Amino acid sequence: MSFNTFGQLLRITTWGESHGPAIGVVVDGCPPGITFDLKRDVQGFLDKRRPGQSRHTTQRREPDEAKVLSGVVDGVGGVLTTTGTPIHLMIENVDQRSKDYGALAQTFRPGHADYTYWAKYGVRDHRGGGRSSARETACRVAAGAIARLVIKHMVPGAQIRGALVQMGARKIPLEQRAGRWSSAVIDDNDFFCPDGATAVAWAVDLDAIRKAGSSIGAVVEVVAEGMPVGLGAPLYGKLDADLAAAMMSINAVKGVEIGDGMGVAELSGVENADEIRAGNDGKPLFLSNHAGGVLGGISTGQDIVCRFAVKPTSSILTPRRTIDEAGQETDIATKGRHDPCVGIRAVPVGEAMMAIVLADHLLRHRGQVG
């Protein structure tokens, strides 16, 4: 068992800490012969997650420039070609301010992994949380970019897109759910929000929350379009189980839904059944998608829909009660640079984890049934 590796045939192993010299990921299992441009096909996704791009995210200034150390050969015009060997991507940390965490060396921040890491291992990296920091998710986004290349190679035309669909109690309109989005709208605001009016309201909400010294949670929705039927396996190889595990592995995620998720508890059997007719192309035509594109753990060929809830950032300026390593009671207010809503930058992370799972399952499916 590896505690830093995810996947079966396409395996990613991340390494590094928030305030170490660098972070990175090794992607093993990528087929050979896939060509890509590092700036367009990898860096572009890292730039979406990169901190310091608006007043609504942490002001830590990291360029998040990925360097490829292995697994490719150079071609004409900077084009890289995968060799089938492990692809090693490294991202240097250039804007650490470890002094911001000096007062936290022996004190546990409420809501963080400080206590559990210390209780389990007897030691912890208090500088930004070490491995528990959201900084680690940059590695996932880099790996997700490679996974997207695998998907593009195997299923041309497939698309993965994420959006922020809820911040605090304010949700986007129902008609904007489940991928019915305009990319132009999502790319035109600081929240990856598919509804412009809601994005404006969120900006006002978040300014007030930040000034109050607090933070807020959010819900991210990720949709994969154009994926084939048949991905996943019964019981212990379920596609939706792997998607749930992938999303739950993201720091600060506390809940995952596939399709209607928890909402199916409110439906009757008549309402919930995704009825089927014969399509004009001879393929099954589903009349609804309450199941989120997965039945019995196997993809139906419909859009694969996954949502996850991200808790409010635990590092806040408002003093909170806690204890230190000696068991002494104290109060703590976390200084430093933190996202008032970490869910915003979780959108490209969710897209990346969806891509990693789907690329892995595409390779598994090819290996099992050809």
Report on the architecture of this protein.
- By secondary structure, the chain is α+β, with helices and mostly antiparallel strands.
- Helices cover 26% and strands 23% of the residues.
- The protein contains 8 helices and 19 strands.
- The chain has helices at 38-49, 114-121, 137-154, 183-186, 196-211, 239-248, 269-272, 346-369, and strands spanning 5-6, 11-16, 22-28, 35-37, 66-70, 72-74, 79-82, 87-92, 159-167, 170-171, 218-225, 253-258, 276-278, 284-286, 294-295, 298-299, 304-310, 320-323, 329-332.
- The chain has a 5-stranded antiparallel β-sheet, covered by helices on one side. A 5-stranded antiparallel β-sheet has the order 10-9-11-17-12.
- Strand 9 (159-167) and strand 10 form a beta hairpin.
- Helix 3 (137-154) crosses helix 8 (346-369).
- The longest helix has 24 residues, at 346-369.
- The protein is globular.
- The mean pLDDT is 91.
Strand order across the largest sheet = 1-2-3-8-5
Distance between the termini: 28 Å
Low-confidence stretches: none
Q: Percent range for helical residues?
A: 25-40%
* Strand residue percentage: 15-25%
Number of strands: 19
User: How much is the radius of gyration in Å?
Assistant: 21 Å
Overall shape: it is globular
The helix-and-strand class reads alpha+beta
- Listing every helix as H and every strand as E from the N terminus to the C terminus, the arrangement reads EEEEHEEEEHHEEHHEHEHEEEEEEEH
